[in-house]
UniProtKB/TrEMBL annotation:
Gene3D superfamilies membership: NAD(P)-binding Rossmann-like Domain
Species annotation: Nymphaea colorata (pocket water lily)
SUPFAM superfamilies reported for this sequence: NAD(P)-binding Rossmann-fold domains
Name of the protein in its database record: Uncharacterized protein
Length: 55
């Protein structure tokens, strides 16, 4: 990514963050995997931007 940005200094490079790597979400996943909260049926996360890419 850095090399590509250096080749095209006129463009804007945007890097998205996957929520599963954010510290609070990573901690939640750890708690769930360790079985500390019982059987989880569903987890929902709302993005704070329009999801413009097909996932």
């Amino acid at each position: 990514v850095i090399a590509a940005a250096q080749r095209r200094p006129e463009i804007v490079v945007q890097v998205g963050l996957e929520y599963r790597y954010m510290p609070p979400v990573a901690r939640l996943l750890s708690i769930v995997k360790d079985g500390l909260v019982g059987q989880v049926k569903m987890v929902a996360i709302r993005e704070h931007r329009f999801p413009f890419l097909v996932k």
